[in-house]
Amino acid sequence: MWADAHALTGWEALAVALAVAYLLLAMRQSQWCWACAALSTLIFTGLFWHVSLLMESLLNLFYLVMAAYGYWQWRSGGENGNGVALVRWSWRRHAVVISATAGLALLMGYLMDTHTHADLAYLDAMTTCFAVVTTFMVVRKVVENWLYWIVINSASIYLYLSKGLALSSGLYLLYVVLAWIGYQQWRQQFRLQPCPSLAKRSA
Predict the structure, then answer these.
(1) Is the distance from CB of 89 to CB of 142 less than 8 angstroms?
(2) Helix (H) or strand (E) holding 184
(3) pLDDT at 26 over 80
(4) SS3 79
(5) How many domains are contained in the chain?
(6) Runs of H (alpha helix) within 51-165
(7) Which of 53, 105, 130, 175 is most enclosed, with most CB atoms within 10 A?
(8) What is d(CA 30, CA 48) in angstroms, rounded to the nearest whole number?
(9) Residue 161 and residue 167: Cα distance in Å, rounded?
(10) pLDDT tens string 146-164
(11) CA distances in angstroms from 4 to 47, 109, 121, listed in the order given
(12) pLDDT of 39-51, one tens digit each?
């Protein structure tokens, strides 16, 4: 048991280091953040499955796919293949997204709670569903994605602590701080974008 726990801690430490690298590179809008994300998610997928956080494990499989899509999008997406510009969403669009995601999360939480061995099913489903939506926001460079991550990461701290994943909990505490810094940086970069047509708010 000690050997198994030691091995898991080692893998968790590597996943955490790669996850921090991903976040720091994402704050700089570097396309290489997605390579770090892919490696980190591979490790976290196995870790979360091992401790019966099924939705978190499935979420990381999704992250793996999104890492490939995000790299392609940031490298060659956008108008004229020049990458994706920062955008902002209206409060109405955010309200619709939050309401729809919360409703889906409640349904998934109920199904997981009644039909699987998942622990903390509703919280697991809520963080998972919102993380899926927010990852799309990151790929599309929606400035407000960082505010979503602050809430998601705060909830994840409790989720991981309850399963004994101390390093992951520490990572998400760091994420809360860095997400706020990331929001400030992207908001400032949005204002400084050279082409107004690309910097307009999305309705």
Answers:
(1) yes
(2) helix 166-191
(3) yes
(4) helix
(5) 1
(6) 54-76, 91-115, 121-139, 145-161
(7) 53
(8) 27
(9) 9
(10) 999 999 999 989 888 887 7
(11) 12, 30, 25
(12) 988 888 888 777 7
Mean pLDDT of 6-33: 81
The token pair at 113 is 């709670």
Tokens 């392609």 map to which residue? Answer: 72
State how far the Cα of 149 lies from the Cα of 92, in Å rounded to an integer.
Answer: 19
Helix/strand/coil for 53: coil
Q: What's the one-letter identity of residue 195?
A: C
- Residue 99's alpha-carbon distances to 51, 96, 126, 130, 169, in angstroms, are 30, 5, 12, 11, 27
Q: What is the pLDDT of residue 76?
A: 75
Other CB atoms closer than 10 Å to residue 38's CB: what's the count? 19
In whole angstroms, give the CA distance from residue 161 to residue 18.
20
Containing domain of residue 60, as a range?
Answer: 2-202
